[in-house]
Amino acid sequence: MSNVMVSPSLLASDFLNLEKEVEMLNESKADYIHLDVMDGLFVPNISYGMPVIKAIQKISKKPADIHLMIEKPERYLDEFLDLGAKILSIHFEACTHLHRAIDHIKKRGCLAGVAINPHTSVDVLNDIIKEIDVVNIMSVNPGFGGQKFIPLTYTKINRLHTLIRTQNANTIIQIDGGVNMENAAILAAAGADLLVAGHFVFSSDNPLQTIEDLRNVK
Ligand code: DX5
Ligand code: ZN
Description:
- By secondary structure, the chain is of the alpha/beta class.
- It is 33% helix and 20% strand.
- Strands 1-8-7-6-5-4-3-2 form an eight-stranded parallel beta sheet.
- It is globular, with a radius of gyration of 16 Å.
- It starts with a strand and ends with a helix.
- Zinc ion binds at residues 9, 34, 36, 67, 176, 196.
- D-xylitol-5-phosphate (DX5) binds at residues 9, 11-12, 34, 36, 67, 140, 142-147, 176-179, 196-200.
């Protein structure tokens, strides 16, 4: 069985030392770099936007996994695609014409991600799952790093896994929020392919080792 992939969330990094943090990730076994964009409307918090991501992209060697927690994300797809996103995720709850947005992202050669809040059932993706490259099951309410993992996530992974298999889709299951060493193995066993981890990585004494440990969960 292949390793679970890991996408460290830069939201938990030391913004005064962003260059060092990105270089640390470059040296790590991380599969992606997770970039959380918040608009203060879809979520109660505001994080960072294009200029910061542009600067990060100048030195980052990891594929950018950009998570848009913004209302009407279709307004900004091209700007984030131009910044070189490898995964561009938008929220089911924030986008009226989801099919069109997914289509647009994929036509530009990027993996199209759809994130769902903890209260949103995976069943809403039933008709569109074959079009989606990545489903991000939020395991916390989006808006802040360092929150507690919500256990109902496990059954959502099981159901999404069944949905993907039943329709022969080729969709990556991403889990975002409160991931740590206690739940990582259970998440991987339930069918998660890609784990986002912010605080657990950046507050660790040895982030390089922590990233490797997460990748090696069985
Ligand atoms: C939450 C963000 C997450 C967050 C994860 O709104 O989407 O990506 O940064 O951070 P931790 O692992 O600290 O919960
Ligand atoms: Zn995120």
